[in-house]
Amino acid sequence: MSNQNTISLDIKKEEFQTIKDLLLAQNWVEQNDSNQYVVYRLRSPLGSIATMYFSGKLVLQGREDFTRVISMLKKEKEDTSEEFLAHFGVDEVGKGDYFGPLVVVGCFVNEEFFKKVKLLGFADSKKFSDEKIENLYSMVKDYPYYYSSIVYPNEYNRLTKIYRNASLLLAKQHAKVIEEGLRDLESKKEVCNYVVIDQFSASKSRVTNELGQLGKKSKFIQFHKGESDIAVASASIIARGIFV
């Protein structure tokens, strides 16, 4: 049996929550701790303990090799030091006609949220199981800068008869969350540099034709497999989190 390893790391106060989010994303679980000097205590799937003290010391204890954890902490600092422009992404989940609602989400990603979702490993929601989606969504569902539109089957069928085109219905829902989001961001003086759409139509004007004044003034980027953009990936995961 291997000996217990104990490693102590110096952590800045502003990084306390970031470290916690990183470990939670790796399936560590928070433990109750009444120690007045402890910010939080987490247990790994292998039984190791991570204790964050108000002094700024992170103590890792257990029989597992902590090399991977330390590497992730180092990589997180490198990744989040890159320049990032806050922007808005849109994606949808579901068809709306029979197997559940159509859920369209627009998500504004600022620098703080960017750091968090990078830690959580956000990517195209289709890559994750329902259980993983529920876990990721639970960590971001209180974020104030995402905007959703849900069209349930009866309403979806009614609207497709009116529009006679499912793509037009989808474009209108995209435009709806974009306008709502940009209006809210403007009222809160948040700077949105551009909007990214996961292109679903051969015509790039399909969505832009449905936009209001705020949307028409914004810079738009559209391309297939838009989930490679972090804002679109965030919208994708939140949409599926609402859907499931």
Architecture overview:
This protein folds into two domains: 5-79, TATA-Binding Protein; 87-243, Nucleotidyltransferase, domain 5. Helix 1 (16-25) packs parallel to helix 3 and helix 4 packs across helix 9 (230-243). It has a five-stranded antiparallel sheet with strand order 1-5-4-3-2, covered by helices on one side. The chain starts with a strand and ends with a helix. It contains nine helices and ten strands. The chain is 41% helix and 23% strand. Strand 2 and strand 3 form a beta hairpin. By secondary structure, it is an alpha+beta fold. One of its GO terms (cellular component) is ribonuclease H2 complex.
Briefly, what is this?
The protein has nine helices and ten strands. It has 244 residues and is of the alpha+beta class. It has two domains: 5-79, TATA-Binding Protein; 87-243, Ribonuclease H-like superfamily/Ribonuclease H (Nucleotidyltransferase, domain 5, 2-Layer Sandwich), CATH 3.30.420.
